[in-house]
Amino acid sequence: MEISSMQLFSRLIVILSAFAMTACVTTSDPLPSWNDGQTKTNIITFVTKITDKNSVDFVPKEERIATFDNDGTLWSEQPYYFQLAFAFHQVKLMADKHPEWKTTEPFKSVLADDMKGVMASGEKGLLQIVSATHSGMTAEEFEKSVYDWSTTATHPTTGKLFTSMVYQPMLELLQYLRANDFKTFIVSGGGVDFMRVFTEQIYGIPPEQVVGSEIDSQFKLIDGIPTILREPKLLFVDDKAGKPIGIYRHIGRRPIFAAGNSDGDLAMLEYTTISRGPDDKSLRFGLLVHHTDAVREWAYDRDSKIGKLDLGLDEAPKQGWTLVNMKNEWKVIYPTAK
Amino acid sequence: MEISSMQLFSRLIVILSAFAMTACVTTSDPLPSWNDGQTKTNIITFVTKITDKNSVDFVPKEERIATFDNDGTLWSEQPYYFQLAFAFHQVKLMADKHPEWKTTEPFKSVLADDMKGVMASGEKGLLQIVSATHSGMTAEEFEKSVYDWSTTATHPTTGKLFTSMVYQPMLELLQYLRANDFKTFIVSGGGVDFMRVFTEQIYGIPPEQVVGSEIDSQFKLIDGIPTILREPKLLFVDDKAGKPIGIYRHIGRRPIFAAGNSDGDLAMLEYTTISRGPDDKSLRFGLLVHHTDAVREWAYDRDSKIGKLDLGLDEAPKQGWTLVNMKNEWKVIYPTAK
C-alpha cells in the first residue's frame, strides 16, 4: 500500500502529538508562572506533604481549607480599591436621579473626576459614596450593577478590565490547591455581595466560598415577589481581627493555608499558622504577597495608604511565613490572554 | 476437564452475584425508606428534570443548592429543641463552679430537673441558660463540650442518643440530592457553632455548609495562642425572615430546593420557590415535613409551641409545596443501625 505524503504528514503529527503529551506529563509544572526558587519549593513541598497518606503531616481532604485575601492578593488594588472604582462608576450612572450631587461633596468631586477632592472627604465621604451605591436597592439590582461594571469598566491607568487585573501566578496557585482537594475561599475586606458576582468567573471560587464585609438586608414579599432589600447599615467588617471571626462564622474550621498581602491579613495568618500549643504540630502555610514591581504592577509596603504592609514584613520571618517578592518570583503578572 | 463440586459452587456464586448486581441496578430506589406515592414521585420527577440536559428545566450543577432546616426537618425537636437539652446538660456540668445556681432561677429548676419551673422562667430564663452555656469560653472549649454531649447524651423519653434521632428518609433525600450534584446546606434557627460539631458526621454536611443563628466573638492572641472567644451577645437569628437573609449572606445564591417543617421555614420556602415574575419559569421545590406520627415520633402542628406549623399548612397547597405526611410516607423514622 502506497502512503501519500499527506497521510505520512498526518501520521507524523499524531506521533509528535503523542510525544508532546508525554513531555507535558513528565515536565508538568503546577505553577508555570512562578520562577523556580524558595517560594515555589515551599508551596510544592507543603502540598506534597499534607497530601501524602504516609506523611505525619497528612491532612484529610475535608480539612484542606485555604483562604485568600482578594485586594492586592488575587487582583490589584492601586491606585484605590477596585470596589471604590465601582462606587465612583455607579455615582456617575445614578447622577441623573440625584441632581443635588452636582453641588454636594463628596459626590461633586466624583462627578468631576477630582480624586483629590474625593479623598479630601475622608473616611466619612467614602462611606457616603459606598452607602449610596451599595444600598437602597434589591439584591438583584445590585448584582446587575456589579455585573455590568465587571464586564465593561476599565482601570484608569492600565486601560484593562478591572476583572482582568488578576494575578496569573495566584490563579495557578488556586488551581493547584484545588487539584489537591483543597476548598479555596476568599476572605476579604471587600463587600461579600460585590465580590460574589464575579469570583466564580475569574477565580473559580463559587459565591458560597466568599467571606467579606456585610451590610444589613431585609426580606419581604413585594407585590408577591420574594425580595431582598439592601440596607445602609454596615454589619461586619471582614478585616484585621475580623478575618478570623469571618472564618469562624462562615467556614467553621481553621484553614491550613492562608494568603494575604497587607497588615489587614495578619490576624488571618496568625489564626491559620500559629500552633495551638505543644500538642499541635500540624503543618500550616502562611503567604504574603509583597508588591515590589513598580514596572509591571506597583511597588508599595510600609508607607502605603492602600494595602499597607508594615508589621507583616517584620512578622513574616519570625512566623515562618513565605514572603513573595512579586518582581523576582512572578514571570508574568496578569493573564496574557485577557 | 473435570469440575469439582467446589469449583461448580464457586462458579454458581459468581453467576448469582452477577444476577443480584443486575437486579440491584435495575430496581435501584434512591429513597428506599419512602413509601411509593405522590411525595416520592414529586421528588424524583423534580431531580430527573433539573438534571436532564435536554430538559427546559435543566439547572447547571453549580446552581443546585438545597437548603434544609434542622430541628423537626432532619432530626426530632420534641419535647424541646435538642440544643436546649445540651444547654441543660451543660448547666449540670458547670454547676460546681456556680454554687449560686442552686438557689437562683432558672438554673435552680434545671438542676432539679424541673422542666415546668424552667419553662416558667420564660424566654428570658431560656436566654440566660443559653448565654451561660454558649458563651464565656473559647471556640475550642465550646466545640469540645458539644462533641462530648453529642456522643453521649440521650433523649429523656426515647433513651436514644440525640444524634441518632435523625430521620432516615431525610438522610436518603440528602444523599440522593448530593448524588445528583446538589450542594446541601443546613439553614436552621439553631446555633451555627453548635450544629457544625456533628453535621458532617450525622448528615454528611460539612461545617462550611451550615447556616444558623450567631453570637458575637472576638479574636485575640492569648499567651501567644490564637484564640476565638465567644461573647454573650446574639448577633443573628436565623429564623423566619432571617432565613432568606442567612442564605443571602452565607450562600449568596437562591436555592432551588428547600425543606422545612414549621412556620419558621415559610420565608425560606417563599424565597426559594416563588417566581420572580413572568420571565422566571424555573422549576423549584418546596417541602414541609408534617409531624403526624404520634406512635413512632410525635404528632403536632397548628397548636404546638415547638415547631408550630399553622400558616404553612394553609400555604402549602397554594404554593405547590409538597407536604410530607410522616406517618403515611415514611417506612421508618430513625436509622435502624443506630
Tell me briefly what this model is:
Chains A, B: Keywords: Signal. Chain A is an alpha/beta fold and 338 residues long.
How are the SSEs ordered, and which strands pair?
The structure is a homodimer.
Chain A: H1 5-26, H2 38-50, E1 65-68, H3 82-94, H4 107-111, H5 115-120, H6 122-134, H7 139-152, H8 168-179, E2 183-191, H9 192-203, E3 210-222, E4 225-236, H10 242-250, E5 257-260, H11 266-273, E6 285-290, H12 311-319, E7 322-325, H13 326-329
Parallel strand pairs in A: 1-2, 1-5, 2-3, 5-6, 6-7
Antiparallel strand pairs in A: 3-4
Give a description of the structure.
The structure is a homodimer of 338-residue chains. By secondary structure, chain A is of the alpha/beta class. The first copy, chain A, folds into 2 domains: 191 residues, HAD superfamily/HAD-like (Rossmann fold, 3-Layer(aba) Sandwich), CATH 3.40.50; 58 residues, no CATH class. The first copy, chain A, is 41% helix and 15% strand. The first copy, chain A, is built from 13 helices and 7 strands. A 7-stranded mixed sheet of chain A has the order 4-3-2-1-5-6-7, with helices on both faces. In chain A, helix 3 crosses helix 6, helix 7 packs across helix 9 and helix 10 packs across helix 11. Chain A is globular, with a radius of gyration of 23 Å. At the A-B interface, helix 9, strand 3, strand 4, helix 10 and helix 11 of A face strand 3, strand 4, helix 11 and helix 12 of B. Chains A, B: This is Haloacid dehalogenase-like hydrolase. Chains A, B: InterPro entries: HAD-like_sf (IPR036412), HAD_sf (IPR023214). Chains A, B: Keywords: Signal.
